[in-house]
Amino acid sequence: MLSRDSSPRRRRWWKMGLEACELPPPQSMSPENAVPRILVITPVRDERAHLAATIESMTAQTLRPTAWMIVDDGSTDGTGELIDRAAEEHSWIRGLRRPDRGRRKVGGGVIEAFDDGLARFDLDDFDYVCKLDGDLRFGERYFEALMEKFAADPRLGTASGKCWDKTASGWTLLRTSDEFSLGAAKCYRVECFRAIGGFVAEVMWDGIDCHRCSMLGWKARSFHDEDLRLYELRPMGASHRSVFHGRWRWGWGLHFIGTHPLYAVAIACYRTFERPFALGGMCILGGYLWAALRRVPRYPDPAFRRHLRRWQLARLRLS
Fold first, then answer.
1. Nearest 5°: phi and psi at 285?
2. CB neighbours (10 Å) of residue 306?
3. What's the pTM value of the predicted model, to 2 decimals?
4. Beta strands in 24-118 (DSSP E)
5. DSSP character for 221?
């Protein structure tokens, strides 16, 4: 079980390196647990405008999660009251309120809230654990279709659908690699989640985890299936300040995790063709260069950074 006192263990694997680690074959669910036991944790902060749509999507699922914990991370817009009403109406929904720290904590804040919710459960009671954002809408077969993907591949450690963003011309698919589960809706096989040590409370946590999966021989995937569409009610890559700040933060995070400079340039060029056109890519590259010039400390796992750069250079050669 991951709990509040798991942080020392998590700090230790930063220094261990995992290049030579091997996992035993994944364990299948026992017959009595043939229906997947799914735990969903949703950290939110000032999401009243969007959370109602997420609650509506969750309560309509053909395969309902076993438990859903919505963690209010210090909201001041009435989000907590919305959570309370949902918990009163549905016994499998629970709410948790955290005190307002007075500011947003980029990267680490959402994972601290997630871990706080997770600590209220025993992972031995579940087969899958999901981190789900509170500003999404999705179809009624989302979790059923996702469980079908896990059942078809025993080495699939984490998975999600694909995100769609609303534009002036309608809903547009957000271009993301198939080799990552999306941070907005990560679902993990509990065995894999434990193996990687949970999420890291840092910027780019949602890329670090997928690379750690591959280091350990697990697969991370996002799927294009229609049943797995996730509709973002707020622009992906935007921060609470602006899209431009979100892109700058993205570039800063690329430096933090140890991204190769050539790969950072490639990402910036690739994203220039997305809204905000040209400026978004420039902000990504600007954030990366600013962090490099300021010698911002990097993610403290040399083995991880070596693995990341090998993967990135291999992708550049393929492209």
1. -65, -35
2. 13
3. 0.84
4. 38-44, 67-73, 93-98
5. E
